[in-house]
Amino acid sequence: MSNKPLGTPARQALVALMTHVSEASNSELYEHFRMRIEKNIRQELESAGYIVWRKGLRGAIFHELTEDGWERARREVGAAAPERVSSAWLLHYGTLMHLDRLLATRNLQLADLYVGPLGIPRTDTEPSDEASTPSRDAAPPEGERVGSEPDGVEDRVRDAYQRLADAPGSLVSLARLRERLEDVARDDLDRVLRAMDRRREIHLEPDPNRKALTQAVREAAVTIGGEDKHLITIDHS
Asked: Which of 99, 52, 106, 50 is nearest to 79 (CA)?
C-alpha cells in the first residue's frame, strides 16, 4: 500500500466510492454526488493500489475500492478536510469526524457503517424479534428452500449466458436471458442476479441508449442502486 499523500480530488474520489460502497461508474457517481473520477485521478488511485477499474459498454468506466483502498478510506473518515474545498465538503468531513468517534467508541469497523450499495436495503440482516422468526420445526412453503436460492438457478444463468453470448465477456440482453429462464419466477431470478452481481460473479450494466430500448427490454431490467440494468456479462478470462 502506498504512503504517498493523495491530492484533494483523489481523496474526494475515495470518499465517494466508500459512500457508494459497491462498484460505481462515473455516471452513477455523478448521479449521486455530482462528481466524476477523471483519468489522472483514476491513475493516481490505481498506482497507489486503492482502486481497480474496468471498461463497460461503450467505454463506460467502473471503479471499485480494493482492500487497501478501504483501509485508506477508513483513515479519511478521521482526517481533516482538504484545503480549499467547498462548504459542502467541509460539512461532509465534519460529519465523518463524528462517525470516526462513533466507530472508535463502539469498537465498530467501517463495514458496520457502510453496509450496502446506495438505494438497496440490506436483506441479510437477522430478524429483529422472535415473532418474525419462523419456527425451526415449521415446514417451508411448498417449492421453497429455506436459507438458499432456488435449486440450480445460478448454474442455469451461467448456462443461458454461455448459449446466448457471442463470446465470453460479451453483453447479453436480460430480456433474452429471461426468455431462456421463463419458468423461473421473476422475484427468484432477480434475487439470484443481484446476489451474483454483488459477488462479482456476473456484471449487470445499464444500456446507455435509453431512447432506443423496447418495452420488453425495459420490463426485463433489474434495478440496482436506483438504476435499471438491462445487460449481463460474465468474464471467464
From this structure: 99
Q: Any idea of the CA torsion for 230, 219, 208, 180, to the nearest 10 degrees?
A: 30
Q: Half-sphere exposure (CA, 13 Å, Cβ side) for 13?
A: 28
| Residue 38: band (very low, low, confident or very high) from pLDDT cuts 50, 70, 90 | very high
Q: Where are the beta strands (DSSP E) in 92-193?
A: 172-173
Q: Can you tell me the mean pLDDT for 38-45?
A: 96
Fold of the domain spanning 153-233: Arc Repressor Mutant, subunit A (1.10.10)
CATH number of 8-113: 1.10.10.10
pTM of the model: 0.52
| Domain residue ranges of the chain, discontinuous segments joined by + | 8-113, 153-233
